[in-house]
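seq:
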Amino acid sequence: MKVFMAVIVFIMVASGLAFAEVVDGIAAKVGADIITIHEFNSAYGQARRAALILGDEVPSKKEVMNKLIDNLLIKKEAEARGVIVTDEELEKIIANIKKQGDLSDGKFEEQLKREGLTYEQLKDQYRIELLKTRLINQMASSGIHTIDEQEIESFYNDPANRTLLSVPPIVKLAEIYLPLAPDASYQDAVNAKKQANDIYTAVKSGQSFEQLVKQYSQAPNKDSEGYLGSYTKEQLSVFLKPEDVNFIFSLDSGDVTPPIRLQDGYYLFKVREKSEGGMMKFSEARENIKSYLVRKKGEGIFESWLLKVRQSTKIQNIISME
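struct:
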């Protein structure tokens, strides 16, 4: 009999049944649902790595478990309310992240590995955030009748909210880009610098920047006259030195910078437009304030719901949270 039972156990292990039971043991029970040990260990490892990368305090096991419980409750409530997030939406979000970060598929995969994430885990994180946002919006629309004008005016006139209602200075830039390979010879570097200076001299002598873009720039945006986009100081500081950022913001509309050397080559930037920023007018800010107040009240309703459903749900941690 003992031999027969040993064979059964062996077959279960070989087929993966017993192994799955060990790996996916229960970490917590949330009503009729469970969180597996594998899910918890994966989430805890990701949270630790993210904290170390960002220089934040490493979260406790209890904090990570509470987050998993909240996520499970959010998913169940979203399903009950018919709130969904499609894979197509998530694919578009991730594609946009790649585009903004100029990340190839290979670099994106490397970044995921560094953070201890799989592609599906990343999608699930974004899915939860979108579900939460949509639940908040739904709860806000069903639980709030109106935001009256007095609330909006009081928010606008409160000095504590001035930073929220201020528009930072912004420049719209166009560029001429002359690439320089990392293994370029000294003579190649000299030639690239001379060409950049010659282009700057041509601009100063009155030649059209847009024409020079078509003639010399090697950037993909040359067909749109080198238009790069709108930037605040903070955004420009991501890839330019502080002194270069300050210099660009000291220029007037239509001005062009001397050549700026970056790691991948030389750049000349033209300030197409410039806005000084400042406090938004009430008429400009009104709808944004109203949306903000609705959102904040919706978040309050959501937090109250989450607390209530936690209190009414039997939650049991099976593994130690120490």
